[in-house]
Amino acid sequence: MEIYKKLKEFGKVKLNEPLFKHTSIKIGGVADFFIFVDSVSHLVDLLNFLRKEDINYIVLGGGTNTLLVGERFEGVVISTVNVRQIKFDENKVTADAGSSTAEIARMSIKNNLTGFEWGICVPGTIGGATCGNAGAMGYDMRDSVEKVEVYRDGEILELSYDECEFGYRDSIFKHNTDIILRVFLKLEVNKNKDLAKEAMNNITHRNKTQPQGFPSSGCVLKNVAIDKNIKIKDLPEQFLQRGIISTGWLIDQAGMKGESLGGAKVSETHCNFVINAGGATTDDIVDLIEKIKDKVYDKFGIKLEEEVRIIHL
Ligand SMILES: Cc1cc2nc3c(=O)[nH]c(=O)nc-3n(C[C@H](O)[C@H](O)[C@H](O)COP(=O)(O)OP(=O)(O)OC[C@H]3O[C@@H](n4cnc5c(N)ncnc54)[C@H](O)[C@@H]3O)c2cc1C
């Protein structure tokens, strides 16, 4: 109970919290402690405390790209969703890690700034988006990030764009233990686009091409860059033009559309979405992802990589 009392200094704390409430796929084990930390400074104080006491922790943003495997987390799950101050200064945006990506996009449009319209369709937080270099409509986080403030081993550091080591759905934060505190974006002043209309078009397109009404974690596997090792006859022209093959298409061609395993199902609307069709366990989801990877490898010789983050509790 000492830990519980101490944690309350940093935000709202819950004991034995079911984690399905905090992931978009609506699955997860139970956490000993769950805390909605309420500011960047409290996040830093909390991390210092957990470090000093050697207590395990996991940081979650919106939980929209995360699969939590296991029954119980003996430690503290930190939610950043209440750490969400967003400031605009001309064409620059400073956003706390838990700020909603879609909200930043909406505010940018309102401020007549362009470059982040795509973010309106992406659920979750800017911290999660920066970690996974989220993107849509041909853009991603690296197009807008100027620098990132992080907590690393008890210190607060500012990482330059280059130090973030962004790649396709990848960044240094997927490979180290840095906790993102704030993200600094640089956008362009809009001259002639109808930003509100473009954002509406993006939303309409999303609603048509993504499964509605079932919990998911978005695309589970990364799209594939075309290189000389890929020998697929009759690739659709749009993939050749973009140099990227849609993994949803590969999954469909491998005969996995609509495939189920327990409560997990490959969406019929977008085959790269594995939905919780009802009562799925994380094992169902993870096993179905493995099956998809095997089938695509058997048919095309392509090894798919996870886009979704799998965290073992
Ligand atoms: C319906 C739907 C549509 C989606 N569409 C898209 C899309 O178009 N494009 C796209 O790229 N993604 C998409 N996604 C996936 C997801 O929304 C994005 O990847 C999103 O940016 C993840 O943010 P989050 O806050 O939910 O991250 P979380 O799932 O909470 O976390 C993801 C990872 O980041 C880490 N993390 C989170 N916050 C921090 C922090 N402050 N510091 C360090 N590490 C942190 C977590 O530990 C975890 O490993 C979609 C998901 C859904 C459900």
TrEMBL record:
One of its GO terms (biological process) is cell division. Its cofactor is FAD. Pfam families: FAD_binding_4, MurB_C. NCBIfam families: murB (TIGR00179), PRK13905.1 (NF010480). Coiled coil: none annotated. Cell wall formation. SUPFAM superfamilies: FAD-binding/transporter-associated domain-like (SSF56176), Uridine diphospho-N-Acetylenolpyruvylglucosamine reductase, MurB, C-terminal domain (SSF56194). Its main location: cytoplasm. Its EC number is 1.3.1.98. Belongs to the MurB family. It comes from the Bacteria. One of its GO terms (molecular function) is UDP-N-acetylmuramate dehydrogenase activity. This is UDP-N-acetylenolpyruvoylglucosamine reductase. It is found in: Cytoplasm. The active site is at residues 169, 219, 307. Keywords: Cell cycle, Cell division, Cell shape, Cell wall biogenesis/degradation, Cytoplasm, FAD, Flavoprotein, NADP, Oxidoreductase, Peptidoglycan synthesis. The gene is murB. It catalyses: UDP-N-acetyl-alpha-D-muramate + NADP(+) = UDP-N-acetyl-3-O-(1-carboxyvinyl)-alpha-D-glucosamine + NADPH + H(+). Pathway: Cell wall biogenesis; peptidoglycan biosynthesis.
